[in-house]
Amino acid sequence: MRVVCVTGCLGFMGSHFTRACLQRGWQVWGVDTMTYAARPELLDEFRQSASFKFTEADIVTMDHLYDVDAVFNFAAETHVDNSIVDSSRFSWANIMGVENLLELIRGKRNYEMPLLVQVSTDEVYGDVLDGKHTEEHPLHPSNPYSASKASADMLILGWHRTHNVPYLIIRPTNNYGIGQYPEKLIPKAVKYLSLRKKIPLHGKGLYVRNWLHAEDTAAAIFHILERGQRNRVYNVSGNYEATNREVIEKVLRCYFGKRVKLNLHVQFNYVRMGEDVRYSLDDTRLRRLGWKNARRFDDEIKAIVEYYRDRFIW
Ligand SMILES: NC(=O)c1ccc[n+]([C@@H]2O[C@H](COP(=O)([O-])OP(=O)(O)OC[C@H]3O[C@@H](n4cnc5c(N)ncnc54)[C@H](O)[C@@H]3O)[C@@H](O)[C@H]2O)c1
To answer: Does the structural domain 3-180+212-239+289-296 have CATH classification 3.40.50.720?
Structure first.
């Protein structure tokens, strides 16, 4: 695997993956339409490598795919709140974008069809109060964002069966790390603290998420490519399951350098329709291939909070 296309290369997870591909000496063709969530400043970093080429394009309207070994699709609209206000961008990018990528791939001769690696999400399964979702569980999305991601997964299964398009579907849990847009919990909390505002938390902050470092997600994808089977779904789980309240307590401790009262900095009872209580994945299929998380939330969170505290992100 040497010559690859990474869509959404200027977004949070796509940029971590692009950096990791370049470090491996791969040729990377990055594609991004540069929505508000993109970080165009990363182009300076990536372009220092002669192996990086960039096209500003929308995956829905892209009409050419260079000959690549694989297309890693990180491009998507990703913020659940936005999807509740207006789902049209989500159907556009997350469903029609994948359909267009599938069509571009099937337009290649059979022996030249690149592998489509679709970055899906744990949210396609819906929530689970006890236990964990395996790859065999049915999809039960609860909001327009996760419904659009589940739809894309279905399209891929259909294009594989009918047109033989090779695929991998990767379903990671909540990612954290450097470079996430401050609409997501951790950077948003730091931004609110910097603005001396209270952090809005859904409900009583008791919703549970599983946290996976973005570099661990990239490593898991490489591991699956090297040791996994083609045309399969792989869950990828983090090693830190916590309520949003617990996460914010850690953010506060890192931000202030001491324990502070949660109520002074958090506004509870913010309501989001379709809110999922708990997401949790069983990723035994991946772990049996010998993969494990390299990053621990407690070791990473201080540097991440400091990173967001030290720079204002619009
Ligand atoms: N962040 C998470 O916690 C998480 C967890 C599991 C799965 N995922 C999935 O991983 C993928 C990446 O998530 P992220 O958090 O990095 O997203 P992000 O919002 O940070 O970045 C998305 C990137 O895609 C680009 N983009 C959006 N629509 C596009 C289009 N139509 N054509 C080309 N580029 C487009 C944006 O400009 C942006 O650079 C998404 O598919 C998401 O569903 C994210």
So the answer is: yes
Give the dihedral of Cα atoms 189, 195, 197, 202; nearest 10 deg: -30
Q: How many helices (H) and strands (E) does the chain have?
A: 12, 12
How far, in Å, from the CA of 10 to the mean position of ligand 1? 9
- Could you tell me the mean pLDDT of each successive run of 10 residues in the chain, 314 residues long? 94 98 98 98 98 98 97 98 97 98 94 95 96 98 97 98 98 98 97 96 94 98 98 97 97 97 93 88 98 98 97 87
User: What is the residue extent of each domain of the chain?
Assistant: 3-180+212-239+289-296
CA 18 to chain centroid, in Å, comes to 13
**Catalytic one of 32, 58, 77, 122:** 122
Does ligand 1 come within 6 angstroms of the Cβ of 30? Answer: no
Model pTM greater than 0.85? yes
CA of 263 to the centre of ligand 1 (A): 32
CB 173 within 8 A of CB 122: yes
Nearest CA to ligand 1 atom 28: 76
